[in-house]
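Holo prediction. Input below; ligand is LARABZUK.
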Amino acid sequence: MRTFVKLCGLQTPEDAEKLEGIDADAAGMIFVPGRKRTVSPERAASIVSRLPAGIRSAGVFLNPTRDEVLRVWDRVELDLIQLHGLEEPEFCRWLKENLGGRIVKVFFAGKKSAFPPEAYARWIDAVLIDSVAGTDRGGTGKTFAWNLLPEEQKRWEAWGIPVWVAGGLHPDNVNRLLTEHLPHGVDTSSGVETNGEKDRDKMKRFVERVRRHDRRVH
Ligand SMILES: O=C(O)c1ccccc1NCC(=O)[C@H](O)[C@H](O)COP(=O)(O)O
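Structure of the complex:
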């Protein structure tokens, strides 16, 4: 199995160019208002235009309205829509049926979802388990207690939904996560930055660690 690798929080077209020669699967852009990595749809469109072939684009939203997603969707070529808030199954259904992109629904380790997996199952393509720090959801740079993962994996994988993991991952801890929990995908942002900017060397090392694991295990 190839572990899906998403590198999130690209802020400039130069960040996209840094991915040349890096075997990642997706790059994410933040459309959550007021966060340090937030980009406009126009900026995101120019980032996507510079992504190396084969790297998919992901748009990250947090409790958006339908119109807010549409405003981005109409301007930016997105392959994945990542929902980082408390979006309900009905909202995921609407996006899936009307936009057709792949939907990644985020849940937070140790926080129980108001809806069971079966309510989401038909409308989402992957689940991402992330950390929450105070009121901040996403991009926290903090790991969560990975011993919560087996239960989450069992819940979602029973419905055929792949589970990805985020929250404080970096080149030096991702191998331990993969070895101990074998998630279908991993995602990182803070852990591949230096002074708030995407660091090509860290992104490359992160992805190389994952691919080394893939060769050894799968
Ligand atoms: O990255 C952000 O700034 C962000 C802000 C608001 C919602 C989501 C955000 N990031 C989404 C991601 O997919 C991150 O990669 C994920 O949360 C992990 O972040 P980190 O702990 O910094 O690696």
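The longest helix spans residues 200-217. That is the main takeaway for now.
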